[in-house]
Amino acid sequence: MKAKFNTALWLILLFLNQVLFAQSQSKTVDQRVDSVMQLMTLDEKIGQLNQYSDDWTATGPVTVDNDKTRQVRNGQVGSMLNCKGTDRTRWWQEAAMKSRLKIPLLFGQDVVHGYKTTFPIPLAESCSWDLDAMTLSSRVAATEASAGGIHWTFAPMVDIARDPRWGRVMEGAGEDPYLGSMIAAARVKGFQGNKLGDVNSVMACAKHFAAYGAAIGGRDYNTVDMSNQLLWEVYLPPFKAAVDAGVATFMNSFNVLNGIPATGNSYLQRDILKGKWDFEGFVVSDWNSIGEMITHGFAKNEEEAAFNAITAGSDMDMESRCYKKSLSQLVAGGKVPLALIDDAVRRILQKKFELGLFDDPFKYCNTEREQKELNNPEHAKIARDVAVRSIVLLKNQDNLLPLSKSIKTIAFIGPLVKAVKQNKGYWDVEVPGVDSNFIVSQWEGLQNKVGSKTKLLYAKGCEIEGSDKSGFDEAVQMAKQSDVVILSIGERRDMSGEAHSRSNLNIPGVQEDLLKELLATGKPVVVLINAGRPLVFNYTADNAPAILYTWWLGSEAGNAIADILFGDYNPSAKLTISFPLSVGQIPVYYNHLNTGRPVTSNMGNTSSYIDSPVNPKYEFGYGLSYTNFEYSNLQLSKKKMSIDGKIVVSLTVSNTGKYAGEEIIQLYLRDLVGSISRPVKDLKDFAKIALKAGESKIVRFTIDKEKLSFYNQKLQWVAEPGEFELMIGASSSDIRLNSVFELVN
Ligand code: GLC
Fold it and tell me: For residue 410, which of 472, 520, 486 has the smallest C-alpha distance?
């Protein structure tokens, strides 16, 4: 009897426990946030809005402050950046657990194109036009970063850029808003995975809000001034795509937009982001961008800078200390309503709950997982696959490429052949305790590829910069002994990236002079150009028989380049940014307006230069393959479309060459007459398909009103009746098929 009673009692207690547990879990995030906020003092709330960099590595002007640990222990810091590794992040989190309310820290890091495993720089990756590949690379980056203690990456950078003088063009997805939007969403999906709180997921951060890439003169941090129509048409769409993809955070930008610093810009952060777009995440400032409103002449002092920023919707203060110093008296003085502070704190705490940090502040501090993920051979394979998809074949005269694997002697020449870390490009992550041995140099990649029957010769030839030609003779001697020369030239990796804008885009030093000497030997020369941006290299372009734009390809650079050189992967990448013929053409981009006197007209006086063509050296969407593709049989399901109708477009694409390959088919539209002048063409869709030699496939696109719409003078998103030209291109200027249709009322 007694036993039965005990069993019954035990079952009742178990049931009650389940109910109570379920109730604690069923408390929504908001309820849990409320329960914490009710306990917080104003000082602790302001602490959540305060972010410091760890002093070990800084990505901005360091303000050494060895009081950070005490402030963390006092609950006066909400987030740290540049703390890497499970040991370091555990140490900081343990400090936070000494605070009164034990609110966990958020750890952020610029994991822009990989954590340990390094992927091609984002601009290179964007040339793959392969959204799945970019999602996958972001997924790997998130897996490794979260294994390294990181909760939050300051990526994807989604700034549209039409000026390759700007150093940060390397960090984005080029010049087109449609493609940039698709890539923004793909990268957010990769970083954040199915949901925040999954151990392999990190918060993503759409940056830099907004229009940072339109800095005058291509000079970083410089003034941005544009019409709201251009802002909405070109620079905002990738940010909206990130919001629609569920991005957890935004970062604002250093620049003014039409005179108002983005950090203090209510139009951007309140009206658009948190208002029209109903963004529920939080906004972090860029490094000291709140304090820099004083330098902009937009704030008298730190108190006014703090007032401007919090009022405009900047939730977290990266490194300026303006919030820590001034918000308390601004609230006490009635200048800043407590509600504004509470809104910012709520947004930040919500993310900490969603990440699971309140349940387990050390959830991402697992050293076994760190060890496993950072040495995951599968990640290297993925990096190699993404890298081969990012290499653009610019020229292949007489089908010099791919090289035969039975080739006897190769002379591999140039200052980047044996470089190791250069291959990582800018915004790589220095992972604690990890050396660079895992990076495959271009030389090593060739060694891995060729058999014992192929002899490899090496000469540096010259440095990246400088006028020293003393190495030319040795290089020429090597070339003369070879069957083919591969010349690897370009920029240094830190000649692009933040605060690294250039006023001229030439290949530095005497590298093209070296090419001239090597061509004079009569040997065939394949040129690899390594850079974080479009460069101007007309001599090379006009004289070298084969050119591969290899960007900065990351930790598998050498293997990927060798795969392409020997045809183990047929290059499929296409440019996502125009390559100017000269700096004088900048800005040069494909989706320009027609003007009243286009250069194609026979007006005599046209919109042209007296000393240069107007077309770029290589256009948006350009890239070659080892095979050929033919486009045929364009069909439209109808020629008249009602506003809520659709047109199905189909065409046949055939691989008429001898290599299997992938082709990126681009659909462009032109609104022939609009209430404002419309671009001569706009990318509205694309498809990347694989075709075996001799194979054909039918490709289909759907036109709906979304693809016909634009922001009119009143900034209304409208599709206006009238005629449209439809263009199917292998690039923005290599239009293979076209047609017209009409949108009717
Ligand atoms: C830098 C960059 C920003 C980066 C931040 C933290 O100044 O502008 O993109 O995320 O500081 O490193």
Answer: 486
Ligand 1 close to Cβ of residue 110 (< 6 A) = yes
**3-state SS track over 373-410:** HHCCHHHHHHHHHHHHCCCEEEEEHHHCCCCCCCCCEE
With CA atoms as reference, report the closest residue to 564 among 71, 73, 77, 124: 124
d(CA 21, CA 740) in angstroms, rounded, equals 63
Q: Quick one: tokens of 719?
A: 């599709």
Quote the DSSP letter at residue 195.
Answer: S
* pLDDT band of 158, cuts 50, 70, 90: very high
CATH 3.40.50.1700 is the classification of domain 393-585 = yes
Q: pTM higher than 0.70, yes or no?
A: yes
pLDDT digits (tens, 9 = 90+) for 266-278: 999 999 999 999 9
Give the total residue count for the chain. 745
- Which of 53, 286, 288, 428 most suits a substitution to test ligand 1, by most atoms within 8 Å of the C-beta? 286
Any ligand 1 atom below 6 A from CB of 154: yes
Terminal Cα distance for the chain, rounded: 84
3-state SS assignment for residue 659: coil
DSSP state of 440: -
Would the CB of 168 count as within 6 Å of ligand 1? no
Nearest to 703 by CA among 736, 670, 677: 670
Q: Which of 647, 650, 729 is nearest to 697 (CA)?
A: 650
* Fold observed for domain 629-744: Immunoglobulin-like (2.60.40)
Secondary element (H or E) of residue 474: helix 472-480
Question: In the numeric block, which tokens belong to residue 263?
Answer: 């950090």
The answer to whether residue 65 scores a pLDDT higher than 80 is: no
671 carries an active-site annotation? no
Question: Would you say 574 and 129 are in contact if contact means Cβ atoms under 8 Å apart?
Answer: yes
**Can you give the residue ranges of every domain in the chain?**
393-585, 629-744
